[in-house]
Design a protein that fits this description.
Number of domains: 2
CATH superfamily of the largest domain: P-loop containing nucleotide triphosphate hydrolases
Shape: globular
Mean pLDDT: 95
Helix content: 40-55%
CATH class of the largest domain: Alpha Beta
Bound molecules: adenosine-5'-triphosphate, magnesium ion
CATH topology of the largest domain: Rossmann fold
């Protein structure tokens, strides 16, 4: 799957753009604030119906305009689809595939596999556990629709249980029969979710992550990745029961898969506190590339890779290792790489004897360099 063509009207700092891309490697090069990341975001938005960076669609409309439009041609095996997204202030977002409107945007999401790796991903290490759960949930639900149903059902019961806890003042008797019913449902859906998460992390994520991290860091660092769940050990019912008193006092459910986390460690210590910036970045890139390889193996096609500023903070050896990996055609398909240096990435690609197209990005315009 590749993006063969992209046209933008009033999208962020682009007034008007029409561009054809290389089916393999595209370098988007230019100074800060010129519009490199915005191109990646336009592609991401075409696939996921929302910006990677800005949840409010109207914020992506060019200043002082009232609409934006993104037209993207996705191609595979000589067949092309045209995806059109337009957002007008105060109107519902329009998404079309080959000129036909979608009734449900969820029918579109996942049709064109795209993976973004950006400096914003550092939140995955530095931010709260909700981001790490979301990371897991996004991947697993892309290949297992049943998982998403379980998650939705779980969250619904959790809301109901929390509402009951909130509406029953501590010290007043709570309806234990209803709590039991909720607990039964939480255990049913939660166990399935914990099983999927645990299996996915252990079988699919960790082996790929370990291999990738070894390549990027040249085997110089010992890192680990672990799925942490209070309910992964089969004592779900007991855990809920023993937490009920605490739940009543804080008025929400304190135990369950909504508290799961991923533990990132380097040399046996938390990556967040003890990893250098380059080490955190290497870890994250290995994690996201593990995600890429998993999706590639599951879907049996190579997702489009959007690599935003990934070389910043990495030494030359790591940049080399990374570039040779993401441009290896047995591993990756089409790749978009942004960099502020006009020659760093092209020089390495020349050294690796890769074919690529370099674009200079300047003031919301793109020109082949
Ligand atoms: N809605 C908008 N309308 C007009 N311009 C916008 C809008 N949103 C963002 N911009 C502009 O887009 C530019 C940022 O573009 P982008 O993030 O793509 O830069 P970049 O080339 O990736 O820079 P860096 O190297 O710093 O990452 C900024 O100048 C910003 O003001
Ligand atoms: Mg940028």
């Amino acid at each position: 799957m590749i993006v063969s063509k992209l046209s933008l009207v009033n999208f962020k700092n682009y007034k008007q753009l029409s561009c054809d891309f290389n089916p393999r490697i595209n370098c988007l090069l230019g100074n800060n604030g010129e519009g490199k990341t915005n191109i990646l975001d336009a592609i991401y938005l075409s696939a996921f119906c929302k910006s990677y960076f800005n949840a409010i669609d109207s914020h992506n409309i060019r200043f002082d305009e009232d609409m934006f439009m993104i037209q993207t041609e996705f191609s595979q095996n000589n067949e092309s689809d045209e995806v059109l997204c337009s957002v007008k202030k105060g109107r519902k977002k329009v998404f079309k595939r080959n000129k036909v409107d979608y009734t449900k945007l969820s029918d579109h999401i996942g049709r064109y596999p795209v993976i973004m790796i950006t400096p914003y991903d550092s939140n995955l290490v530095l931010g709260g556990s909700d981001l790490r759960r979301k990371f897991l949930d996004t991947i697993i639900s892309q290949v297992d629709p049943g998982y998403l149903n379980h998650l939705v059902a779980y969250n619904k019961v959790l809301d109901q249980r929390n509402a009951l806890l909130k509406n029953t003042p501590y010290g007043k008797e709570i309806n234990l029969e209803v709590i039991d019913i909720y607990d039964g449902q939480l255990i049913h859906y939660g166990s399935a979710i914990a099983k999927s998460r645990g299996e996915f992390v252990r079988k699919n994520l960790i082996p790929r992550f370990n291999d990738l991290h070894k390549i990027i860091s040249e085997g110089k660092e010992s890192v680990s990745l672990e799925y942490i769940s209070a309910v992964d050990n089969g004592n779900y019912e007991m855990a809920l029961k023993s937490a009920l008193d605490k739940d009543r006092s804080v008025q929400y459910t304190t135990v369950g898969i909504h508290k799961d986390d991923l533990l990132f460690q380097i040399e046996g210590y938390p990556l967040k506190k003890f990893g250098s910036q380059g080490q955190q970045k290497s870890y994250l890139i290995a994690l996201k590339l593990a995600y890429y390889l998993y999706i590639k193996d599951q879907l049996k096609l190579k997702p489009i890779m959007l690599l935003d500023d990934i070389f910043d903070k990495l030494d030359r050896n790591r940049v080399m290792a990374l570039l040779s990996m993401v441009t290896d055609e047995t591993q990756a398909g089409q790749v978009f790489i942004t960099d502020t240096s006009l020659d760093r990435v092209p020089a390495i690609l020349d050294e690796l004897e890769k074919e690529y197209t370099a674009f200079e990005v300047k003031g919301g315009d793109l020109n082949e360099a």
